[in-house]
Write a structure and sequence with these properties.
Among the domains are: about 1-115, Tetratricopeptide repeat domain (Serine Threonine Protein Phosphatase 5, Tetratricopeptide repeat); about 485-535. It is mainly alpha-helical. About 80% of the residues lie in helices and about 0% in strands.
Length: about 525
């Protein structure tokens, strides 16, 4: 039989003994299992973990001497392998702590180990940590310093030493942080110098960059990552650079890197979500939603994900797309009222009032029986808006009254908005004028100086026939407007109507024309303006 065949036969026999030992141990037959573990160690002593486990069992069932003899034999059988020696040192340190002979033997083995295997990073790390665990810091420092003086060209060696160096010189000690950081950095700097070209070198540089990040040396990490990205386009380095730029407040640069990451790995759900979030923070809703949509399609999504997607479509004013999404979400989550609300808002924006009202009614019915927190004052205010624009002012008023009742005391802006809206609705209908006046005056008390509320107050005076006071308030509202937009045409129309009542036709015509030139979007306002101009002409 050849040497190779003999070695293969030994390995096969060792494996068979190991399988048997495992079965016996699981069955609780520890003594029988021990025999087979010992056979494994004799046939193949390279498995230090098996040797140590066998020694522990031997210690319990046959005594310490036999356990030590087993590990000594394994170490002798493999003189070029450091692992059996490490297993012996661990055993002596654990089970011979009170025995001076065992302690001395473990100490001697520990001192000899780096001499026998001077360029094994695993050995140096083991020896250093053993010294530290036994409060021999000076020995740990000496071992590490001696190893660091070697001319080793392997960057993995320096990375391993750098990791154990952080145990010798902890970076969490504030008063010694600067000195310790300087000493530990040396190992990572040497790893960088020894890094090869190509992907293997990129991995080393990335490991070093991550060390700098974890030790809060962010500027060095950023420079290293930026250089790596510029030269190789390394994806992991780009991801790290993105986080560093984001932490540094460089939002534009961070976004540019994130866009490149998503371009490189479009199926990465986490990066897609991060990009969607970045666009949301910039209020670029139309750019955000495709990435959140892609993330959901690739990795799946729950109700909150679909809710966020619907909100993005709403903010992007992509109402047809939102209706398409709602067709799906209402199948996936038929009992969730939020998706009926989304549907209602999209339909409202497309002026499909009857369908929008029906969707809000379904939302209210579902929420009141399952998610009552959704039918709050804001819900009823929005419901009132849809009903009012859908030609149902009486029901709209009921919703606004509910909203006022449910509005918390500290929500001053919401309260005043709803009071003003309901008051103005009644003015528009010509009913409940006194109650309308109370609501509008209360809105002005809560938020004085609001042009919209002052306009309502002026219009209330108009409806009461007090045109002089109406003009004062309406012109005060106009004076508070910094600039006029299309929806502000109604204030000018109100002033024009008031001038008409006071007999000043020239001023009325001027105000009607200014209102018309703003191009109001509300057809009802446009009609009143044209009617006023026609009457004057």
């Amino acid at each position: 039989m050849s040497t190779e065949d003999a070695a293969a036969s030994q390995r096969a026999a060792a494996l068979a003994h190991y399988a048997t030992a495992q079965q016996l141990e699981q069955a609780g037959q520890m003594r029988e299992a021990l025999e087979h573990y010992i056979a494994v160690v004799r046939l193949d002593p390279s498995h230090a973990e098996v040797a140590q486990h066998a020694a522990e069992l031997a210690y319990h069932y046959r005594g310490k001497d036999e356990a030590v003899a087993l590990l000594e034999a394994a170490a002798t059988a493999r003189p070029t392998d450091f692992r059996p020696v490490m297993a012996l040192i661990r055993f002596l340190s654990t089970y011979g702590a009170g025995d001076s002979t065992s302690k001395s033997r473990a100490q001697q083995l520990l001192l000899d180990l780096p001499k026998r295997f001077p360029q094994q990073a695993e050995v140096i790390s083991f020896v250093v940590l053993q010294h530290l665990s036994q409060n021999r810091r000076t020995d740990a420092v000496q071992t590490l310093e001696k190893a660091s003086s070697l001319a080793v060209a392997d960057p993995a060696w320096w990375l391993a030493l750098g990791r154990v160096a952080q145990e010798v010189w902890p970076l969490a000690q504030t008063e010694l942080r600067e000195e310790h950081t300087r000493r530990v950095n040396v190992f990572f700097e040497r790893a960088l110098k020894q890094s090869p070209t190509g992907s293997a070198g990129d991995a080393v540089k990335l490991d070093v960059a991550q060390y700098y990040v974890l030790t809060n040396q962010l500027e060095i990490a950023k420079v290293l990552c930026a250089d790596l990205v510029a030269k190789t386009g390394n994806l992991q380095a780009r991801k790290l650079l993105f986080r560093l730029l984001q932490a540094d407040g460089a939002k534009d640069e961070a976004l540019a890197e994130l866009e490149k990451i998503v371009q490189a790995v479009p199926a990465d759900v986490e990066q897609r979500r991060l990009l969607a979030q970045a666009y949301q923070e910039r209020e670029e809703w139309a750019k955000a939603f495709p990435h959140l949509e892609a993330a959901i399609q690739i990795g799946g999504g729950d109700a909150s994900d679909y809710q966020s997607l619907g909100q993005l479509l709403l903010q992007s004013q992509l109402y047809d797309r939102l209706i398409e999404l709602c067709a799906r979400t209402l199948q996936l989550f038929p009992d969730n009222p939020i998706f009926h609300i989304h549907q209602a808002f999209a339909l409202r924006s497309l002026q499909r009032w009857d369908k929008a009202i029906a969707a809000m009614e379904r939302a209210a019915s579902l929420a009141e029986t399952g998610q009552a927190e959704l039918v709050n004052h804001r819900f009823y205010f929005q419901f009132g808006l849809i009903l009012e624009r859908g030609g149902k002012p009486e029901k709209a008023a009921q919703m606004f009254e509910k909203a006022i009742t449910l509005t918390p005391k500290d929500e001053i802006e919401d309260a005043s908005t709803t009071m003003n809206y309901l008051g103005y609705l009644w003015l528009d209908q010509g009913i409940h004028l006194d109650k309308a006046g109370e609501l509008i005056r209360k809105a002005n008390e809560l938020q004085p100086g609001n042009p919209a509320y002052i306009d309502s107050l002026g219009w209330w005076y108009y409806k009461k026939g007090d045109y002089a006071h109406a003009l004062i308030e309406l012109e005060r509202a106009l004076s508070l407007m910094k600039s006029l937009e299309a929806d502000d045409a109604e204030i000018l129309e109100h002033i024009a109507q008031t001038h008409l009542k006071l007999g000043d036709k020239a001023k009325a015509r001027e105000m009607f024309q200014r209102a018309r030139d703003l191009g109001p979007s509300d057809p009802r306002v446009r009609q009143r303006i044209e009617k006023g101009l026609n009457e004057l002409n």
